[in-house]
């Protein structure tokens, strides 16, 4: 599989966490914003992100897989669909200062998984509120996880 493991944490003190993880990974973040930082590591192959000021408790926001190609994302999405676990599919979502196609799922314990292929940068953390649909869709845990992102593609 051509993918990078992804972990996203909600944190109370962004600067303290950036300092800690920069020392742990022995490198500064690949991307840093006022409310977000991301490390794209090769060893281990990891997309590790922290954000502050977001809804939800501090700690793990979600886990995921960042697909290297659109074809790899489709393969992962097909596996999730075969397991009847896809709760939201997004095309061109704006989230975490990037534009991506995504599948959101949750495992049997309720852990939220984001699988995505990024195809561009964005200037905002998420799409403006006006770009989101007026009515909620899918089940509450996935909707909660995806609420920070543009859901213009609808859901399953």
From TrEMBL:
<dbReference type="InterPro" id="IPR037523">
    <property type="entry name" value="VOC_core"/>
</dbReference>
<dbReference type="Pfam" id="PF00903">
    <property type="entry name" value="Glyoxalase"/>
</dbReference>
<dbReference type="InterPro" id="IPR049789">
    <property type="entry name" value="ArsI/CadI-like"/>
</dbReference>
<feature type="domain" description="VOC">
    <location>
        <begin position="3"/>
        <end position="118"/>
    </location>
</feature>
<dbReference type="InterPro" id="IPR004360">
    <property type="entry name" value="Glyas_Fos-R_dOase_dom"/>
</dbReference>
<dbReference type="InterPro" id="IPR029068">
    <property type="entry name" value="Glyas_Bleomycin-R_OHBP_Dase"/>
</dbReference>
<protein>
    <submittedName>
        <fullName>Glyoxalase</fullName>
    </submittedName>
</protein>
<dbReference type="InterPro" id="IPR052393">
    <property type="entry name" value="Cadmium-induced_rsp"/>
</dbReference>
<dbReference type="GO" id="GO:0046686">
    <property type="term" value="P:response to cadmium ion"/>
</dbReference>
